[in-house]
Structure of Methyltransferase NSUN6 isoform X1:
Amino acid sequence: MDSSPSASPSAAAAPAVDAGRYTFSPKLRWQPEVEEYFAAAYGRDRFARISEALAHPSCYSCIRVNTLKSSIHAVMHKLMDLVCENGLSDGINGVEIVEQNGGDQPHERSSLVRKCPYAGLENILFVQGSGPHVLNYNSKPDQSVKEVIVSRKCAESVLRGAQVFVPGVLACSSHVEKGDKVAVSVAVEQPVKDGGWAVDVHYEERKGLYIGQGTAAMSRSGIFRVPHGIAVEMTERVYKLPSFNDVLEGEIFLQNLPSVVAAHVLDPQPGERILDMCAAPGGKTTAIAILMRDKGEVVALDRSHNKVMDILKLASEMDLNCIKAYKLDALKSVRKPDEATNVGMGDSHCEAIKTLAEDSGPCHVTVDGRATNVNEESSTTTVVQSETEHLFSVDDKNPESKRYVSKAELRKNLRRMKNGPGRNNCSGGRVEKSKGFFPDSFDRVLLDAPCSALGLRPRLFAGEETLESLKTHAKYQRRMFDQAVKLVRPGGVIVYSTCTINPGENEALVRYALDTYKFLSLASQYPKVGGPGIVGSYELFNKTYTEEWLTEHEAELVQRFDPSSPVDTIGFFIAKFNVGEKED
C-alpha cells in the first residue's frame, strides 16, 4: 500500500486469515539510553508496565463541570439524556446508563456517567468507555481485507474517539470505493540502519497495529485528491469512548484528571491575583477562575496569538470575567521596575499610551483639550500634545515624568484600533500584548511547564526523545521556574506541573528549586490522588553528570500520576511550594 495511484502488491499478497495480525498490541519504542534511564528510575518491571499503559488510552473521560453555570446533578442528567437521545453511547457494549445511589454508593450495575470518587473533586464526572475490544476484520474470508493506513498522530486521535480525516491517511488499498468497509491500521516509526527512525507502511510492520474499522467516506482516488474532510467514518473501534464534542458548551470541559487536580492544589481564593504562566488552551485557567467564584483576577499567558484567542474564547463560553489573557513568552514575564509597556488607543489625532502596571485605574487621553477615559487595566497615563507638535506620555501619578511618543508608534496603534472590536472583544481579532509584570505581583502562580509530554496517552512512539533532548527540556523549565519565583509574593504559592514521566523534568526540578531558593519549601497537597515521587539520583552522560532527585520525605509531598496505576490516567507530576520571605 502507498499513496500513489498504483495498487500495493503487499495488499494483494496478504493472507486471508492471520489470527495475530488483526489485533491491537502496540509496543512503545524508546531510544535505548532513554529506556535504560527510565528503567533505573522506576525499576525495570514498573517501567515496562508504564510503557505498555502509555500505548493505550484511558477507559474513561473526565468532565469538569462549570459550577457557576450549572450543578453536578443537573449536568449528570443532561449527559445521560443526551446519551439516550443522540446515541452518544453507541458501541459501549454492556454498559447501562444509570446513576449511582445518592452519588456516593456504587450501583449494582455498571454506570456510564458517574461522580468522581476522589475527595475534593466534587465538580468532576467520569464518563465510562470500554476496551480493548477484539474485532472481526475478516467478515468475508474469500476476499482480502481492504485497508486504510493512517499516521501515528491520526491513530492516537482515533483511539480517543476521532474519525479518520484525509490529512492523516498515508496509504490505501486499491479499488476502495465510497461506502466500502475498510480496516484501519497505523504505520509507526521503525528503526533504520543509520540509527534513526522512519515510517514504514509495509505489510509486516503493521501487524498488531489495527485500531478499528469503518466505512470509507470517499473513494481511494478522492482521498488523495482533496486536502481535507473525513476519509473514514469509524464504526467499530478497539477502544470505545462516547464523544462529547460541542455538547453542553460552557457547562462542561473535557480535561485530564491530573490537570483538574493541579488547579485544586493551587487552592486559589476569591479576590486573589493568580498567574497561569503557560495557560493555553485555557483548561486550568478556567478551572482556577471557577474555584475563585470568578472573583479576583486570573492572568493567563501564552506566546501564541491564536492560543491566547482560544483562552479568551473558552472564558467567554464559560461566562468568566476575571480572566485577562496576554500574548507573552513566559521566559520574559518579569519586568524591571523602570520598564513600561506601551499599548495605544485613540482617534485620528493621537493614541493613548497604556502602561501595564500592577494596579488598576482609568486611562485618560487628552488631545486638543478633549479628554477620554478608557477602562483598561493600567496605571493612569495621559498623552499630551505640546505647542511644538511633539507628543509625550505623562503618568498622572508622577506629572513630572514625560516620555516622547513617536508618530510612527501612534500610527501603528491607530491602525490596530481602526479594525474595531472583533471576536472575544479583541480589537480586530487581535490580542493584548504584555512586556511582563513587576516582581512579587501575584498571590499564586501556576507553572504547567512545556515538557517532553511523555505522559500523554495514547502514545504509539517515543523514540524521538534522547537524553540530550530531555536535558534541554529541563533547562528550559528551570528558566521558567526562575521567573515564577520572582513573580510570586512572599507568603504566596507556586504549583509546578508537567505531563511527562521524566524525573529530570519533575523531581530534578524540585531538587533544583529547593537547593537554589532556600525560602521555598514543599507543601502538602489536597486533593491527593497521585502517588509519591522518585527518590535517589542517576548518573548520566558516562557518569559525568549526576541528576539528583528527592529524599523520602520530599517524595511524599509531591504527586506523581502513574499511567499503569488503577487511576488509569495520563502520566503527570505536581509539586507545590510555599514561598517564604525572599532574600535581598
